Structure formats: C-alpha cells, structure tokens
Amino acid sequence: MVLFSIAEPGQGRAQQVIRRKRAVGIDLGTTNSLVAVAKEDKVDVIADVHGRRLLPSVVHYAVDSAPVVGDEALNATGGTTISSSKRLMGRGLTDIQYQVPYTLKDSGDGGMVLIDTAAGAVSPVQVAADILKTLAQRAETSLGGELDGVVITVPAYFDEAQRQATRAAARIAGVNVLRLLSEPTAAAVAYGLDKQLEGILIIYDLGGGTFDVSLMRLHNGVFEVLATGGNSALGGDDFDRAIADWICRQATVVVNAAVDYRRLLKLARAAKHALTTGERTPLQWGTWSGEFSRTQLHELIDGYIDATLSACRRVLRDADIALGDITDVVLVGGSTRTPRVQDKVRTFFGREPLCSIDPDEVVALGAALQADVLAGNKYGDAALLLDVIPLSLGIETMGGLLEKIIPRNSTIPLVRAQEFTTFKDGQTVMSLHVYQGERELVSDCRSLARFDLRGIPPMVAGAARVRVTFQVDADGLLEVQAEEVASGVKSSIVVKPSFGLAEQDIAGMIQSYMHSAAADKVRRSLREKQVEAQRHLEALRAALAADGDSLLDAAERQDLQNAMQHLAAAATGEDAALIERLTEQLNNQSRDFAARRMDAGIKAALAGQRLDAVGDNF
Amino acid sequence: MTDFFAALGMPVACELDRHQLDANYRQRQAEWHPDRYVSASEAVKLQALRHTSLLNDAYTTLKQPLRRAEHLLELKDSDAAGHSSRKLEPAFLLQQLEQREQLEHLARHRDAAALDVLRQLVDTQWLAQWSEFATEAARQDWCNARLALQKLQFLHKLQEEIRHLEE
After folding, report:
1. Angle, vertex CA A476, rays to CA A470 and CA A477, nearest 5
2. Is the CATH number 1.20.1290.10 carried by domain B85-166?
3. Taking CB atoms and an 8 Å cutoff, what residues of chain B touch A384?
4. Residue A159 near residue A446 (C-beta atoms within 8 A)
5. B chain contacts of residue A414, beta-carbon cutoff 8 Å
6. Chain A residue with the nearest C-alpha to that of B63
7. Which CATH superfamily is domain B4-63 in?
8. Is the ipTM of this complex over 0.90?
9. Total-model pTM
10. What is the pLDDT of residue A536?
C-alpha cells in the first residue's frame, strides 16, 4: 500500500490519501480472454492500443523468438500455434479423450500433459501464463503502473487440480491472484450491480465446450450462491458435431481425415449461424447438396439443451428452490445466442431471459467488480459474495468408501470436524486420504492428498478418537487436520493436489453418480458387509490370542477357527449374502466363548485386589 | 454445545421467522466475512474465518426444520441420556413398514401417479408430526418431544427416498 502524507496549506493537519489499488478482473476463456477494471463509477473492458477488446486465447511458439499471443498468433507462421489449451489445464494424458490439433506428451511423472511445439515442450500452464502476461501488460499500460492484484474467473465446475493449475499460471505470469471466481458468479455480480437486481437469479452459462449453472440470491448487496452445477463436457461444439454428423448421413459419406472433419465442422457452424436469422439454409458437401432447416436443427440439438435443463432442475433441487421463486434468468456464453436455446430456456423458466450485457464481456466485468472489493478499494457498502464449494470433500474409510465431511454446495468459509476411530488393536498410525467427488467409492472420486497421523497411543480397536477437521477458507483452499483427542497427537496438510491425477471429469463424475446411485448402493452394502466381517474376525482373533487356551478345548477352538477361515475367504469375494450368512454363523458359534470370557472377566473383577496383582505380573 | 439460535440472534424456538433468519444471517455475514478483512492481521482474519464458519453452520442447521428440531433438543434436553428412551408405538412402526414396502413396490413398477399420492400422504403425516413436536416443545415436555422427533426422522428418511425415486 502506498501512502502519501499531504499537508494542506492553512489546514495544519496532515491528511492521508490512499492510492486506489490497481485491481482488474480477467476472464481466461477457452476461445477468447479479456481484462476489465472497475473505476469510481463504472466498469469497463480494457482494450489494447489498437482498440481490440477480446484477446484470442491463442499462443504461437517458434524457435528462438518470444511467444506471440492473440490475433498476431492467429496469423503467425513457421512455428506451432496453440489454441483452446484451457481444456488441458490440470489434465493428464489419459484424461484427454478427444482429438487435438497438436501433439501431446506425457510429462513423465504422471502429471499434466505437455504440448509439443517448435520451441520445445510447453505445459498448458505456460500457455495460460503467456495469455495472462499479455492481459496484465495491457492493463498496466492503461492504468499507468504495476497491478496490485487480479481476480481470475474459472468455470464453476473446475476441480481442485484445474484451479491449482490456474493459480500456477498466474504465479508464472507474475500476477497476484486475489481470488479465483466462478464464471457464472462473476456474471451475476455484473448483472446484480448494473441492474440493481434483487431476488433469486439463475445464471445459465453455455459455452463452446462446457455448461455451468448457478443459482444465487441477491439481497441488499449480499450475493449468496445457493447452488451450482453443470456439465463440463456439454456445449455449443456438440451442436456443431451433431450437424456435421447429419451432413455425413445425408451425403452418405464417411469423413475420417482430421483436416476434412475440421472443414466439415466449419460448414456445420456456418449453417448453425445462418439459422439464427433464417428458416432454412442451403448446404453443400462434395457432390452432395441439400437444405438444412430449423426443424432439422432442433431435432439434432434439443437433446443437448434438455440435458442442460435437467442440470438446472438438479441445482434447484439442491438449493430447495421452486421454479416460481426465480426472479431473473441470466444468459451467459456464446452458445446462448442460438435462438432455440433462448426459446427453451424461456419456456422452462416461464420468463424472458436477460442478455443485455454482452455475453462475451459480462464475466470479466463481474470479476473486475469483485477485484475492486478484494483489493480494499471499497468499504462498507461494497457487495459481499458468499460462495459455495462445487464438489463434496471427504476422506476414505474402510473398504474404500468415501465419507463426505463437507457436502457440495456448502457455503464457505467452513470448518467441520468428524470423529473416526482405529480399526485394529494397537494401531498407532492412521492413514488419511482426502478425496473430492460425489460417488460412494473413492475409486470413482478424485484424490486430492494423503497424509498420516502417527503416534496414536496403542489402544483396543475402536477406542481411539481421531478428530478430522476440514477447513475451507474464503478462497476455497482446503486444509485438513487430524488429532487424536485423548493424547493430543496432531498432523495436518494444506491440500495442493498434484496436476493431472484426474481419471474423469468432475461433471462426468456427478453424472455417472446420478446414473449409478443404485449400483453404488449395492457396492456400498457389499463393502460394509466385508468391513463388518473383518471387524468380527479381528476381534475374535484378539480374543483367541488372549483367552483361547484357557477357555476353549482343542475341538472347540478348531471349530471356531474353521468358521473364521470360511468367513475370511468369503469376505474377499463379492457375494454379500454369503458374507452376511457366515458372519451371522460365526457370531452364533462364538457366543458361548464370549459368554465364558465375560464370566471370567466378572470373576476377575470380583477378585478385586488380586486382579491388580495379576496385572502387575504381566 | 454452541447455541446456533444465539449465534444468529434468533429466539430459541421450533418455529422461526424465515425472513428474520435470512436477514440476520446476511447482516452478520456482511459484518464478519473474511473478504471484509483483506488487509487485516492474520489473527483477525482467522477470527473472521472461524466466526463466519460458525454462522454458516448455524444457518444451515436452522433453516432445515428437522435439523433445527434436533439442535433444539440438544440444547434443551441436556439430560437426554439420563432418560430411558421410550419406544415408538408399534402402530407407527407398522405403518412405516407398510409405507416402505409400498415404496419398494412403486419403485419396481415405476408408478409415478401412485408415488405422487404416497408423497402427499407422507408430507401430511410430516406436518401433523411436526405440529405435535412443536406442541411438546412449547410445553417443554422433552421426553415426548424426543419421541415426536424420532418419528420425524423416520418420515424425513421416507420423504428423501420418495424424492430420490421421483428423480
């Protein structure tokens, strides 16, 4: 902070004038990126020296020269031009299930992919950093000095790995990140402040490759995110592909070569755009020519639009809000320009959607407003944003199950604790594995971090009380702490997920969760029975070791051990009913032994002093 | 045990004014949110984080009737463990069993209309049970209130399952 002391003549008293912080909002988009700033009375996009407001998210890398960013990169020749690299952020090679127009490489350590360029291998983080640097320079030129901080927007559905990759890009570019803000939330801030909206807002954000939806309550300058959802693999690109495939079917051709398919997609996109105004448009591919009508377009894309509307329904349910409670619907993202999308959204919500702020700029404008607040330029009357975590956080428990500690759509900041216990007698180490996701089994969720709590005093299974505390701060950063309550032994970790650990996309995870909840239940029940069986076996083994010789004869002991072996074998299998039956059987069979142990225990207790004496001799 | 009612400036009661709750929550968040303390010391920031986290917990708890009722009992019925918990009457348990069987049947036959009828029935039962809980709580008969709460928990679970099926 820079402070000037100005002594006003004749006033005799020094007055402190605080320089307004240079804080901007950056929309780091898949196709275009832009930067905006909030001034005293207005917020606007910062253009470059040529007056261009959008910066294409394209970087050109060539041998022995600095990277070229934006429009110039589009026209550059002789090197490698990278576009749409946002889709590679925080992703490993195995995550990329689609074609990209450049060569990808594994980073070697199972981390994020690398892109092969004329200037050597480049990480998507580097590409994002180059774009951020260009935007920061543009802002610094316009504002006349170094930036104090930026707010960068990310899709609501970006998981921890993708968010961390974005933060890393900012670090490389040398900009100070005040906050990562969800794109739909940023759009709501822009609309809320510009139009003085109050009530419940739904933000429908359909981009080229992703769909985000957020439900917010606006009241007296407090912006409360009620729920957020979406699908990170659904967007306007799907419309283009559907049209392209339709052309192939009509022309009875198969298009295999990547270069031809790109040309076909371009044709499809042009046809889609032509139908925003016209009823029908002529099409030609090779020797085939035909006509493409709105009715045909609707048939092809309605399924995708309906999928976005079910995501809206889910968000309403998560927040326990009825359709009729919604006061405004905001459209964001280039694909909401498709008239059919607007029609279906209008019908679904029963009201005219708002799209008065340029859908390409609205996100950056909202980010700029929030940057202004977080830099400390506004006090008192400033808008306050209450955000949520988009995906549940939890830890792995026995049997590979996810115990959710913070459910998705919980308002942050949040501190929540839950107690766990040991599984084995004398267990002194507890391994904690932190996951993010909605599924029941951790194998279907994303691993975030793992750490051990050591030095737990040896106790019988189930006696230790380990309190696991999850703390999510206002930035959405997670810190996990574990403490054994009786002894005070502690361990903690700040979660910084390694890049590219992802097996699946987060939205994909949610979807598969919706589809497979029933199957998960069956698997969960099996795991629970397996764990239950192991617990019985563990307890019985300990009891046998302690009192087996004194309380059982050889035959009894052999019977019990046979039953244990049967159960142990079954517990490794998948037959839940069999495990349950054998557990029950073992229970019955060991009842007598348990009773004898209890008798022996009572006798020992009645003997009073002598028990202590015996104890000392052990 | 933190008193969530006190944290949000609400009277300790089972029915509450939702508008008042929302307003109190927002007003306290506006005052305490860490974003208000971006240039404060680390100690103050931590304090803000702790307090807003408590506010979030309190708000989530109080705005859901069942969790609010549970919290109310935790606060008021401090010697709950001392009471021998009374058993739910067999008639109620039997009804639960029947409704559960009915739900399974409807799930198999994907009978949306019948599911709707069942949902309305369970919702009505919930409301009746809720007013019983409210009455007992007002009379400070915590033993009966606990019994009513147990039934509410059963009904809530059933409502959740119906809802899940409707999706």
Report:
1. 60
2. no
3. 29-30, 33, 35-36
4. yes
5. 53, 56-57
6. A320
7. DnaJ domain (1.10.287.110)
8. no
9. 0.73
10. 83
